[in-house]
Amino acid sequence: MILQHNYAVELEWLGNRGTGTSDYKSYGRDHVVRADGKHDISGSSDRAFHGDADRWNPEELLLAALSQCHMLSYLHVAAANGVVVTAYTDAADGTMVQSADGGGHFTGATLRPIVTISSGDPALALELHHEAGTKCFIASSVNFPVLHEPRIFAG
Question: What does residue 130 show for φ and ψ, rounded to 5 degrees?
């Protein structure tokens, strides 16, 4: 059986400084992302594209989505395989290449989960990152490699 899940967000641009997009530097990149029942996300573009460095940019949000999705998939497969996770952190990074025409694309992302387990086989805990990577909806939706450099600690 195939299950379909639908998601909805609202976006509001806050960057009209009085003249709209009359030229590239005349408008702000600030915006708000909303979803019913959730806290707003203050967004902008990357500082390199005249954005506000204090706000989340789309590239960071994509990387955060990959990291979150992998963690949630990993916790699921760990529980299903008898590996008890007691702590999980990640230090993810990604690379975007900008083309001469102003476009661009991500060329890859690397997740670096540090996982502490209280029981279960550490070798299995390490292997489960591969399974989690195949189950992550976000990683399965992007067209660039998402690598994993996990470390497992028995606690």
Answer: -65, -50
Q: What is the separation of C-alpha 83 from the centre of its chain, rounded to a whole number of angstroms? A: 24
Phi, psi of 9 (to 5 degrees): -135, 160
The C-alpha torsion from 95 through 145 and 56 to 40, rounded to 10°, is 170
Q: How far is it, in rounded angstroms, from Cα 82 to Cα 74?
A: 12
What's the N-to-C CA distance of the chain in angstroms? 39
Three-state SS string over 24-62 comes to CCCCCCCEEEECCCCCCEEECCCHHHCCCCCCECHHHHH
- % the chain with pLDDT above 70: 100
Alpha carbons 67 and 73: distance in angstroms, whole number: 10
Distance CA 107, CA 119 (A): 36
- Reported as a pLDDT band with limits 50, 70 and 90, residue 1 is confident
Report the candidate in 147, 153, 150 with the shortest Cα–Cα distance to residue 85: 153
Q: What is the pLDDT of residues 15-71, one digit of tens each?
A: 999 988 899 989 999 999 999 999 999 999 999 899 999 999 999 999 999 999 999
- Token pair, residue 139, equals 């990683």
